[in-house]
């Protein structure tokens, strides 16, 4: 048996890494959020102002607007990505055409391996008002050209399309892995009781999908709460504030207004919202498969 000291030595690199890249930045941001810290006005000093930054954020209508747009973006993307990912996973889980299944699994990795900035660049080209693919499709039906990224009513939907293209494979791969964990004897026993594919999915496969689905929802929600690259490349938060999600608004306050204290408070509040949503996902969706 290994001694306690030996186990601690093996754990030390992981603990130090978490402290450096995780806990220390969090504590630093929490410290900044409780201070009066404006880069462009050093005369104010760096003193404590208790929770004044949080009061400023919570009384800011633009903050609530950006948070509302973030929730709307989540409502746009997560259900579509889940449904498409589940359909892809169910198709790939079938035993027919093993070569095509292998090729499809490799193809699913391509969007995931593409950086958000590159996805944003592809989106700008695709939704360009002059020579974009989206407008070419629109003109095939006899309609005039549409400014997808310049229309406040369409810009956020355009971002949702590109986000869905990139992250639907993530849902598909995780749900496919969950389907492979379903015991074959349970499937065979269920097929003796019913021939309906829906009953097999609902009562046998679905419980094994819930842990993976919960994890994906938590990760995608956290990614969306800090989504910046895609938005900055495609729209820079515009037109107006139509695509200014909470992460983009936090960046504007921190690096354009240069009020680091208020920006840090926004970041902490965003983290709290993410934790609340994660707990809600676990309570609603997570079930241990028996």
What this model shows, in words?
With 290 residues, the protein is mostly helical. The protein has one domain: MetI-like (MetI-like fold, Orthogonal Bundle). The chain is built from twelve helices and no strands. The chain has helices at 4-33, 52-58, 61-93, 98-113, 116-126, 133-140, 155-180, 184-193, 197-225, 229-234, 246-255, 260-285. α2 packs across α12 and α4 (98-113) crosses α7 (155-180). The model has no long low-confidence stretch (mean pLDDT 89).
What order do the helices and strands come in, and which of them pair?
Elements: H1 4-33, H2 52-58, H3 61-93, H4 98-113, H5 116-126, H6 133-140, H7 155-180, H8 184-193, H9 197-225, H10 229-234, H11 246-255, H12 260-285
Helix pairs in contact: 1-12, 2-12, 3-7, 3-9, 3-11, 4-7, 5-7, 7-9, 9-12, 11-12
CATH homologous superfamily identity: MetI-like
Q: Which residues form runs of ≥5 with pLDDT under 50? A: none
Basic shape: globular
Q: How big is the Rg?
A: 23 Å
Distance between the termini: 33 Å
What's the short version?
It is found in: Cell membrane; Membrane. The protein is mainly alpha-helical and 290 residues long.
């Amino acid at each position: 048996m290994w001694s306690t000291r030996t186990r601690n030595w093996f754990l030390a690199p992981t603990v130090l890494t978490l402290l450096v890249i995780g806990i220390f930045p969090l504590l630093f941001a929490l410290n900044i959020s409780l201070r009066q810290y404006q880069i462009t006005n050093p005369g104010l000093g760096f003193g404590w102002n208790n929770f004044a930054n949080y009061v400023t954020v919570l009384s800011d209508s633009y903050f609530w607007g950006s948070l509302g747009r973030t929730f709307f973006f989540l409502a746009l993307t997560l259900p579509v990505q889940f449904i498409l990912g589940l359909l892809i996973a169910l198709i790939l889980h079938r035993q027919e055409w093993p070569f095509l299944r292998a090729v499809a699994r490799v193809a699913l990795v391509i969007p995931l391996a593409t950086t958000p900035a590159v996805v944003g660049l592809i989106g700008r080209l695709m939704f360009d008002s002059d020579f974009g693919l989206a407008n070419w499709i629109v003109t095939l039906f006899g309609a005039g050209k549409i400014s997808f990224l310049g229309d406040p009513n369409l810009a956020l939907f355009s971002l949702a399309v590109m986000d869905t293209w990139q992250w639907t494979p993530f849902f598909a791969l995780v749900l496919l892995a969950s389907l492979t964990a379903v015991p074959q004897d349970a499937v065979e026993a269920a097929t003796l009781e019913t021939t309906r594919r829906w009953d097999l999915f609902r009562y046998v496969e679905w419980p094994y999908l819930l842990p993976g689905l919960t994890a994906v929802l938590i990760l995608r929600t956290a990614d969306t709460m800090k989504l910046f690259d895609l938005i900055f490349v495609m729209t820079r938060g515009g037109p107006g504030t139509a695509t200014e999600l909470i992460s983009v608004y936090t960046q504007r306050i921190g690096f354009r207004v240069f009020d680091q204290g208020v920006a840090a408070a926004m970041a902490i509040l965003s983290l709290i919202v993410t934790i609340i949503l994660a707990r809600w996902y676990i309570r609603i969706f997570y079930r241990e498969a028996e």
